[in-house]
Amino acid sequence: MILSRASQYAIQAVILMAMQPQGTFVLNRDLAEQLNVPAPYLAKVLQALVRGNLLYSSRGRNGGFCLREGVEKVDLMQILLHLEGPQFTDACLLGLKECTDETACPIHKQWKPIKHKLARVLRTETPGKLARAVKTGKYRLADLPMSML
Amino acid sequence: MILSRASQYAIQAVILMAMQPQGTFVLNRDLAEQLNVPAPYLAKVLQALVRGNLLYSSRGRNGGFCLREGVEKVDLMQILLHLEGPQFTDACLLGLKECTDETACPIHKQWKPIKHKLARVLRTETPGKLARAVKTGKYRLADLPMSML
DNA sequence: TTTAAAGAGGAGTTACATATCTACAAGTAG
DNA sequence: CTACTTGTAGATATGTAACTCCTCTTTAAA
Q1: What pLDDT, in 10s, does the model give residues A81-113?
Q2: Is residue A108 a contact partner of residue B139, using CB atoms and an 8 Å limit?
Q3: pLDDT, average across residues A62-77
Q4: pLDDT tens for each residue of B15-38
Q5: In chain B, how many domains are there?
Q6: What are the beta bridge partners of residue A139?
Q7: Averaged over A42-50, what is the pLDDT?
Q8: Do A149 and B11 touch (CB under 8 A)?
Q9: How far is the CA of B26 from the C1' of D1 (A)?
C-alpha cells in the first residue's frame, strides 16, 4: 500500500527533473524546496540514483543533478528497484515470508492480481509521461501549502 | 503495498479463531505458537481487538480469547480500521497529504482503481471465509518451519 | 590563486513501529 | 481461602526508517 519515503521522493524528483529542458542541472536545494521535502535527506536519495546511473551529478558552481539521457523514458519500476529490494512487488499481504502459488496464504489468490496491476502501472509510467501530465496543470507534484488547505 | 505487522497478526489470529468451533476460547500463547509470532506482541494486538468489541477475553483457567458472535462474518476492513487509521486506503502512492480527484498527484488516476480493488477485497473477505479456505488445506496461515524451505 | 558553491560520504540523532518485561487483576479449581 | 492460571496495563527496550550534521572533495567564477 505504501512506498518508502525514499522512493516517493525519488519519483517526485525525477518527474521534476524531467520537466526541465533536457540536460538542465537542478540544485538539490531547489528540488527539495519545490517538493517541500527535507533537503539533506533528498540528497541521499539522489546520490543513490547517481550510483544507479540514473542521474548525472556535478559539483561546484553551476552544479546539481540532471537525468541521464533516456531516463525520462525509463519506467518507474526500474527506478524503484534501485531503492526498494529487487522483489518488493512479491510481498505477501499477511506478511508470510514464503507465499507463492504453491504455498499460499488464504488471501494470496485475491491479492496477486492487485499486486500485478500495480506492477503493470509502475512498468508503464515514466518520468517523461508524468512530467507532461504535471505540465498540463491538472496534476501536481508537491503538497499544497497550508494556506491552500 | 504493506499492512502493519499488528494488522497482519490480527488477521492471522482472527482466521485461526474462526477455524475453531464457535465460542471456543483460545490461549494467546497457543495462537502465537501456531502463527509463529511473538506472544507478548500478539497479546497487545488482541487486546486492541477486545477494546474494539471484536473479541471476548476471559482470564484465569480455561481463559483465552474468542471471536464475538458474528465476527466471523465481519469483513477484514472492519477489523483493520481498528488498527490502521480510518483512511488507510486513501494513501497517495507518492505520499502527498492531499491527493484527491480535484487535486491529484500525476499517478493518482492509475493508482486509484488499484486501491479500490484492494479495498473491495478487504470488504469482501471475512475470517469465516478464509478459515474455510485454510481448512481445505490448499492455503496456510503461518510461515513454514525452516525445515520445509 | 583564492573563494564560494555545490555534491559526497560518514556519523549521529530522532521518531515510531515492533517487541519485551514486570507487576497486577481477575478468574478457576481444589 | 489458597494456589495457579490467564489476560491487562504500563513501562521499557530494540530495530529501522527517516532525518540531520559535519567534514571533505570538486568545480568554477572572480
Answers
A1: 999 987 788 999 999 999 999 999 999 999 999
A2: yes
A3: 97
A4: 999 999 999 999 999 999 999 999
A5: 1
A6: B104
A7: 98
A8: no
A9: 29
In this prediction the pTM is 0.94
B147 has pLDDT over 60: no
B3 touches chain A (CB under 8 A): yes
Any domain includes B77? yes
Percentage of chain B surpassing pLDDT 70? 95
Of the candidates A11, A91, A124, which has its C-beta nearest B1's C-beta? A91
Q: Say if A63 falls within a structural domain.
A: yes
Rounded Cα distance between B97 and A11, Å, is: 16
Joined grid coordinates for residue B85: 487509521
- Distance from CA(A5) to C1'(C15), angstroms, rounded: 14
Could you say which nucleotides of strand C lie within 7 A of any protein CB atom?
4-10, 17-22, 25-29
Interface of B with A in 39-78 (CB under 8 A): none
AA letter at B55:
L
Cell 494486538, residue? B45
DSSP string of A100-113, one letter each residue: -SSSB-TTHHHHHH
Residue A143 covered by a domain: no
Q: Does B137 touch chain A (CB under 8 A)?
A: no
Domain that holds residue A35: 5-136
Query: According to the model, what pLDDT value does residue A145 have?
Result: 60
Residue B143 CB contacts under 8 Å (≥ 6 apart), including other chains: A96, A97, A98, B36
pLDDT above 60 for A149: no
The residue of A139, A147, A149 whose CB has the most chain B CBs within 10 angstroms, and thus the best one to mutate to test that interface, is A139
Question: Which CATH number belongs to the domain containing residue B73 in this structure?
Answer: 1.10.10.10
Q: Which among B114, B131, B141 is the nearest to A118, CB-wise? A: B114
User: By mean pLDDT, which of A89-103, A118-132, B34-48 is the weakest?
Assistant: A89-103
A104 Cα to chain B: minimum distance (Å): 5
Per the CB < 8 A criterion, the answer to whether B45 and B14 are in contact is no
Asked, for residue A105, whether it belongs to a domain, the answer is: yes
